């Protein structure tokens, strides 16, 4: 496992250039496969292969609870986190369905669920039983934040050592849109009101309360925006820290990283503040329906592949976008060239 904040390898510019040159020999007008083309070039650079492969993918779902749930900021009770973890290991959640569809290795990691999780198959890496309520105290200590980052790093390491060539990283945690909005507000300096959404579906009155709780909590905790680990410890979530760690370890191992929705994008932003070279390894799967996601994407200058109005989390949008990565690889390796197909290359 790499050091959490060690510098990451540069992407391989030579392989990326070879892939770009090969793309223009394929039997299609140059550029006609649109965004699939720069995607293939990015994958070649990340993998260090001019004909990259991304299968099999690995799905990591990090689950944790949030003390801020006590403020009534979610449409669902905290107990749903543990119940959904049981559903993940039983194979019945959306991410299970989509992971099976793409032949992914799936791991469910308890990094901080409040209750004891039942069900064989959960990786027990609980750092603590849920965060503190950041309306009244820091969510966690810096040491706990580092431990949770380490949980994510080890999960990515296991997936890559098991042969996964792409990581799809998701989460489950009631109230984690509140933690994510708070983190995003501090990291970007944007007003909380622009970044708070309905999460699992709170009503209008709940949304007003959620905004007020997050605004007051940020004022009370007053973290230093130039200290990303301190911001994470003050306002964050254990699964958010673990996602950041998984991204850093995946990049260290030259694996493309599919970023899911709002929470995963905020984790990616935080990880980029800790290790800016990470940005080149990230592929943004989809634009979530959650209100703050646009600002999170803008902060990373990211343009996601899909917009399906998803707002589930779990890694579901990233699993759906994986088919496009596979298509980009197959385009490079399987399409005929103008020469092999005997087709005139230039305009008539
Ligand atoms: O990924 C997203 O864009 C997303 C948007 C809204 C909600 N979620 C999921 O819903 C839960 C958090 O919502 P909430 O209302 O409890 O803060 C958590 O388990 C997330 O996986 C996920
Ligand atoms: C049922 C349910 C499933 C979820 N999956 C991710 N977040 C979730 C939140 C709820 C409430």
TrEMBL record:
Keywords: Cobalamin biosynthesis, Glycosyltransferase, Transferase. GO terms for biological process: cobalamin biosynthetic process. The active site is at residue 314. It catalyses: 5,6-dimethylbenzimidazole + nicotinate beta-D-ribonucleotide = alpha-ribazole 5'-phosphate + nicotinate + H(+). Pathway: Nucleoside biosynthesis; alpha-ribazole biosynthesis; alpha-ribazole from 5,6-dimethylbenzimidazole: step 1/2. InterPro entries: Nict_dMeBzImd_PRibTrfase (IPR003200), Nict_dMeBzImd_PRibTrfase_bact (IPR017846), Nict_dMeBzImd_PRibTrfase_N (IPR023195), Nict_dMeBzImd_PRibTrfase_sf (IPR036087). Its EC number is 2.4.2.21. It comes from the Bacteria. One of its GO terms (molecular function) is nicotinate-nucleotide-dimethylbenzimidazole phosphoribosyltransferase activity. The keyword Transferase applies. It holds the Pfam family DBI_PRT. Belongs to the CobT family. NCBIfam families: cobT_DBIPRT, PRK00105.1. Catalyzes the synthesis of alpha-ribazole-5'-phosphate from nicotinate mononucleotide (NAMN) and 5,6-dimethylbenzimidazole (DMB). This is Nicotinate-nucleotide--dimethylbenzimidazole phosphoribosyltransferase.
């Amino acid at each position: 496992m790499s050091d959490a904040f060690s510098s990451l390898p540069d992407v391989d510019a030579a392989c990326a250039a070879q892939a770009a040159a090969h793309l223009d020999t394929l039997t299609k007008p140059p550029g006609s496969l649109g965004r699939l083309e720069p995607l293939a070039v990015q994958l070649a650079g990340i993998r260090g292969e001019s004909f990259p492969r991304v299968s099999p993918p690995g799905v990591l779902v990090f689950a944790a609870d949030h003390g801020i749930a006590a403020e009534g900021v979610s449409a669902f009770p905290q107990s749903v986190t543990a119940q959904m973890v049981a559903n993940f290991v039983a194979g019945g959640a959306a991410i299970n369905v989509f992971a099976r569809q793409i032949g992914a290795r799936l791991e469910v990691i308890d990094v901080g669920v409040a209750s004891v999780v039942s069900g064989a198959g959960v990786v027990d890496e609980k750092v603590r039983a849920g965060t503190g309520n950041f309306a009244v105290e820091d969510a966690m200590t810096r040491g706990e934040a580092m431990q949770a980052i380490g949980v994510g790093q080890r999960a990515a390491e296991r997936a890559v050592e098991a042969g996964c060539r792409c990581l799809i990283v998701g989460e489950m945690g009631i109230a984690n849109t509140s933690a994510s909005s708070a983190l995003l507000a501090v990291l970007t300096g944007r007003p909380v009101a622009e970044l708070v959404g309905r999460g699992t579906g709170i009503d209008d009155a709940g949304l007003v309360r959620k905004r007020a709780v997050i605004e007051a909590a940020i004022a009370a905790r007053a973290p230093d925006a130039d200290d990303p680990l301190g911001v994470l410890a003050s306002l964050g979530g254990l699964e958010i820290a673990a996602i950041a760690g998984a991204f850093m370890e995946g990049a260290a191992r030259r694996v493309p990283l599919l970023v899911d929705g709002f929470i995963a994008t905020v984790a990616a932003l935080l990880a980029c503040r800790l290790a800016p070279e990470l940005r080149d390894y990230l592929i943004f799967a989809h634009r979530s329906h959650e209100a703050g996601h646009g600002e999170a994407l803008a902060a990373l200058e990211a343009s996601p592949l899909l917009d399906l109005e998803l707002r589930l989390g779990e890694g579901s949008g990233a699993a759906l976008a994986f088919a496009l990565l596979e298509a980009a690889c197959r385009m490079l390796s399987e399409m005929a060239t103008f020469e092999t197909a005997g087709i005139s290359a230039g305009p008539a």
